[in-house]
Each structure stands twice: as C-alpha cells, then as structure tokens.
Amino acid sequence: MIKVPRYGRICGRLRELGFCQGDLAYALHLSGGAISKRMYGITEWSVAEMYQVMDFLRAPAEELHLYFPPQAARRRAG
Q: Cys-Cys with 43: which of 1, 20, 37, 49 at CB 3.0–4.6 Å?
C-alpha cells in the first residue's frame, strides 16, 4: 500500500518553491519524522505550526483552509 500525504497542497507548494520537507522541518524547529507524521495525518498540526507553514510557503493566511482542510474533507479526499 502506498502512503499518500494528506497535505498534498503543502507538498506541491514546497516543490514549487524548491524546498523539501526537511527544509520545512528545519524552519519549524521540528525533526523530519515529526513533519512526516503531520503530513500523513498521524499527528495533528497545532494552530501556531499551521501559520508558520503558511509563512514559510509564502502563502496568505486567507488560504489556510486550502492547505489545512477540515478533517471531514481530508477523509473524503483520502
């Protein structure tokens, strides 16, 4: 079974900017494993982390719901 990140928009934006999850981990002062667990929905993102991710991705806060969709929407998509 192939694992697919639940936060595909984050992955796409990282690639678009030339970054990887390791760069995001460094920026958030988290380990690569901690970022991976968040990307796969094993660990929930804190609100503060969500805004840090948005800053790192140079995305407006108004698009937070696109990068971090509500739980029900993620279940339907995944």
A: 37
